[in-house]
Write a structure and sequence with these properties.
alpha/beta; five-stranded mixed sheet; 45% helix
Length: 327
Amino acid sequence: MMKCPLVHFARALAAALLVVAAPVALGQAAYPTKPVRLVVPFPAGGTTDLLARAAAQKLSEAWGQQVIVDNRPGAAGNIGAELVAKAAPDGYTLLMGTVGTHAINASLYAKMPYDHVKDFAPVILVAGVPNVLVVNPQVPVNSVPELIAYAKANPGRLNFASSGSGTSIHLSGELFKTMTGVQMTHVPYKGSAPALTDLIGGQVQLMFDNLPSSLAFIKAGKLRAIAVTSTARAAALPDVPTVADTIPGFEASSWFGVLAPAGTPRGIVVKINGEVAQWLASPDAKEKLAAQGANVAGGSPEDFTKHIQAETAKWAKVVKESGAKVD
């Protein structure tokens, strides 16, 4: 019996699709076949950099390919994020994004060099960290109520540093000003490391830094921890109260996650997600991140996408209420 021409066509089409799909599938299975660049949009030494280097080391070991951390600081993370947004969507250029690059900056900057939603493929949320309110030891305050009283008695005398305009470190200070009515001057830096240097040196008086980058200085007595910005106390600083203990409703935590350029093949996104998730689930990662004051996250690319959406809405409200803007 003769076969229907339509059957021949269907079989031929299926065979052709298999031929086309095979190299793609093999290419994704073999990924990576060369070094991968993980862009950090802040200088070395800050929390974003610390987390990126820890992840890069584990991915390099798992893949047998070097994962190179590339620090591209400037414009509160926008310079590094733009570089990744415009990179080839092949999995070889990734970003360690932050609450700033993928939630805050969209509302804070009048013009953005990238669309934080359309130009990226979220891969995995790596960690969340509380910010910690730290002061130079020469500042005569030991608690949030004392800081508020001192600031009101000395209007304009306090300068608070940040790792850049638009970071959660900056917005934590703006939120504090809005909720307490105190006057403080914002001094932005190109990353936490240079900001901390000036804070320790006394050029600025306080900072709402990411906990991991300040923790060593707190333990060494070079900075005094006043409070953490999360709703609960941080395990790394169990004796330090929360800002919310004094100012109900105050919450301003940071987070960090891996993103790829939009259009990156799903198979590659899933593979990177799986490798990072496996690392985050390990006792080694949990111990190291906890020691730095970070909370392990994880989840699927879809979970990270929803997180970005929720955080964008949350910080848009904070930016609006604080009146903070960057040209």
